[in-house]
């Protein structure tokens, strides 16, 4: 399962196979995220706290979010067994999806020990060419528990490695399996990175699917880029995806890593498409009733 190409640094990985070059060196970020210092903990507490409360103001108080089944995620954040990894997956329609959706977590959960605790709030991959373009942007997003991912560099890159490491520690990791902001809302094939993350995490994560509608109206994908108010949003948190039988079958059968990643990713996409249809009905009813 762990036979893989030799580890490459960010620049080399991006350059291999005519991949997009990295204009700003992001290699220094990974050691800091892998072994955070005391300064990192302090700075991360501030960034996560401020961004979390800002997201709640924008999404919950200045817009009109209808939320379904968020208790699924809240219960796992508060009560899942120690050391059990949590993986959330969602569609990606706006650059404000993350952190915006985490503003939905209710105040009973957003105690200081939670919202400011780097061991509770998610780790999330963020595009290197948008969020990590210079030192100051990199520091901000690094303290916000964002991991720089090089889009187009494949499943064997430092960002995916680090997500697996964080899940091994029992942390919460969030993934956008579409691999980019889906501005056209087409049914994109999910990237196999999510399959590798699940396949190579020793303890099967609890996988919670999330589908949301309307975030691109809060922060549009075309200029002018500023946050809008009073928009109607629908969020739907699905039941955890059960991959136990799939994983048992993969462990028992002699399939390649590539085939295993595909099978896992396809299962995640299948479950997400069911959640999408349900959420679209809920959103239609929300718009119709108002």
TrEMBL record:
Q: What is the annotated localization of this protein? A: Mitochondrion inner membrane; Mitochondrion outer membrane
Write down the InterPro entries for this protein, in alphabetical order: Plipid/glycerol_acylTrfase, Tafazzin
Q: Which UniProt keywords apply?
A: Acyltransferase, Lipid metabolism, Membrane, Mitochondrion, Mitochondrion inner membrane, Mitochondrion outer membrane, Transferase, Transmembrane, Transmembrane helix
Q: Where does the protein principally reside?
A: mitochondrion
Could you confirm whether the keyword Mitochondrion appears in this record?
A: yes
Report the catalytic activity.
Answer: 1,2-di-(9Z-octadecenoyl)-sn-glycero-3-phosphocholine + 1-hexadecanoyl-sn-glycero-3-phosphocholine = 1-hexadecanoyl-2-(9Z-octadecenoyl)-sn-glycero-3-phosphocholine + 1-(9Z-octadecenoyl)-sn-glycero-3-phosphocholine; 1'-[1,2-diacyl-sn-glycero-3-phospho],3'-[1-acyl-sn-glycero-3-phospho]-glycerol + a 1,2-diacyl-sn-glycero-3-phosphocholine = a cardiolipin + a 1-acyl-sn-glycero-3-phosphocholine
Q: Locate the Phospholipid/glycerol acyltransferase domain: which residues?
A: 86-215
**CDD domains named in the record:** LPLAT_AGPAT-like (cd07989)
Alphabetized SMART domains for the sequence: PlsC
Q: Which membrane topology describes this protein?
A: Peripheral membrane protein
Q: Which Pfam families match?
A: Acyltransferase (PF01553)
Q: Where are the transmembrane segments?
A: 39-62
Assigned protein family? Belongs to the taffazin family.
Q: What protein is this chain from?
A: Tafazzin family protein
State the taxonomy lineage: Eukaryota, Metazoa, Ecdysozoa, Arthropoda, Hexapoda
